Amino acid sequence: MTQVTMTVNGKAVSGEVEGRTLLSTFLREHLGLTGTHVGCDTAQCGACTVHVDGKAVKSCNMLALEADGASVDTIEGQANPDGSLNAIQAAFQEHHGLQCGFCTPGMVMAAAALLKENPKPTEAEIRHHLSGNLCRCTGYHNIVKAIMAASGQDVAAVAAE
Amino acid sequence: MYNFEFVKPKTLEEAVAALSAEEAQVLGGGQTLIPTLKQRLAAPAKLVSLSGIEALQGVRADGGVLTVGAGTTHATVAAEAGAYPALAALAGNIADPAVRNRGTLGGSIANNDPAADYPAAVLASGATVVTIAREIAADDFFQGMFTTALNDGEIITAVKFPIPEAASYQKFEQPASRFALVGVFVAKYADGVRVAVTGASEDGVFRWSEAEAALAANFAPEALEGLAVPAEGMIADLHGSKAYRAHLVGVMTKRAVAAAG
Ligand SMILES: Cc1cc2nc3c(=O)[nH]c(=O)nc-3n(C[C@H](O)[C@H](O)[C@H](O)COP(=O)(O)OP(=O)(O)OC[C@H]3O[C@@H](n4cnc5c(N)ncnc54)[C@H](O)[C@@H]3O)c2cc1C
Ligand code: FES
Ligand code: FES
């Protein structure tokens, strides 16, 4: 066992992990932050997306020890300080960007990474950016709409309207 | 996944020392290796992460050569390889954004997946693969599916890409994995044209020399009329037959030449 220390959603945390412990396992099982979902555990679906030092990564495909000393953001840290939903989360609710909700934490984290880099993405850029995030329910259109809305853009033009 | 010891050295010297242990293996971005470990297709006793080694990071253009550190992520190459636009575009289209934030150039070419993108760029550019021990020409580096000239524990430190006059990579994506079903990288230099094909052959990435000769005489899609790679030796799977892949090689090469202009 090795000691790992990181900042998760602004709070310093540490724990004892094995070499093989995944970041997703550390977040969910050691810290109890089960908002980060594990859908495929094979780096395909993106449900486990979190930010490490501000960059989106699939936490099922990164070792916890690789994040030693890093700053990690998960879905649990996305709400506004007063507990209300942030702009992206509120837009997902408003535009029915989720059904079962399993993919949603990863979708929200992927969207947050996109909007940080590109505050007014086009529909095509949003779809391209989400290529590593799978949703079995929505058919994606409402997710794309939610992200358009969260970036302050008109959603009326999104495909299949 | 079996357990292993994890170490993250800060210098290449420490990494080399750590790799001298029995059953030690290099960890790049882990985007291929971690799934492999989960399937128990590999079971190293020790993983030596390269992510803490500053000397393996970064993109630098100098005297017509773009040098990319082996630990540089696909996302960083996409953002910073502006001096070689076709290479930046290729990197920006590998996998998805989260994988691009972890996966590295060194890991991709060390793995030499027959459908990976980078091997096509390295081979078409006539690049030099720099390791801790030596410099290896791209023509000697790739030795068939998942096989390279690397010795056990030999760390790739950088790749030096001569910057071409014109180039383009065209990838026909396998729609589920987005790996290349067929990908063709065409690069035009003052002394000739190089064409490298990935995704198609059972021997992994290869050069299409007939196309190179035709394009050296006339760098235009029409120069490829009537040329075809043989279907024999192409990959056949549920996504495409040998003949289909052989046909796509011609189509994607024409598109790459048209896009390179
Ligand atoms: C969902 C998904 C989609 C993908 N899609 C694509 C795609 O479309 N196109 C594509 O080309 N790739 C794709 N990949 C693969 C991706 O590009 C990987 O990042 C890459 O193949 C391996 O790089 P890595 O740094 O993650 O290496 P690792 O997984 O860490 O290592 C791979 C191998 O290389 C060795 N190695 C690593 N670094 C070095 C080094 N510096 N010197 C010597 N040996 C080293 C390791 O020991 C290991 O054997 C995809 C991966 C995933 C998970
Ligand atoms: S659980 Fe990590 S990508 Fe699916
Ligand atoms: S809402 Fe169910 S998987 Fe996306």
Automatic annotation (TrEMBL), chain A:
Keyword Iron recorded: yes
GO molecular function list: 2 iron, 2 sulfur cluster binding; metal ion binding; oxidoreductase activity
SUPFAM superfamilies the record matches: 2Fe-2S ferredoxin-like, CO dehydrogenase ISP C-domain like
Superkingdom of origin: Bacteria
PROSITE patterns per record: 2FE2S_FER_1, 2FE2S_FER_2
Domain 2Fe-2S ferredoxin-type: residue ranges: 2-78
Keywords, sorted A to Z: 2Fe-2S, Iron, Iron-sulfur, Metal-binding, Oxidoreductase
Pfam families linked to this entry: Fer2, Fer2_2
Record's protein name: Carbon-monoxide dehydrogenase small subunit
Taxon lineage: Bacteria, Pseudomonadati, Pseudomonadota, Alphaproteobacteria, Rhodobacterales
UniProtKB/TrEMBL annotation, chain B:
Presence of keyword Metal-binding: no
FAD-binding PCMH-type domain location: 1-166
Keyword Flavoprotein: yes
One annotated GO molecular function: FAD binding
Keywords on record: FAD, Flavoprotein, Oxidoreductase
InterPro entries membership: CO_DH_flav_C (IPR005107), CO_DH_flav_C_dom_sf (IPR036683), Diverse_Substr_Oxidored (IPR051312), FAD-bd_PCMH (IPR016166), FAD-bd_PCMH-like_sf (IPR036318), FAD-bd_PCMH_sub1 (IPR016167), FAD-bd_PCMH_sub2 (IPR016169), Mopterin_DH_FAD-bd (IPR002346)
Coiled coil stretches, renumbered: none
A Pfam match: FAD_binding_5
UniProt name for this protein: Carbon-monoxide dehydrogenase medium subunit
Species for this entry: Jhaorihella thermophila
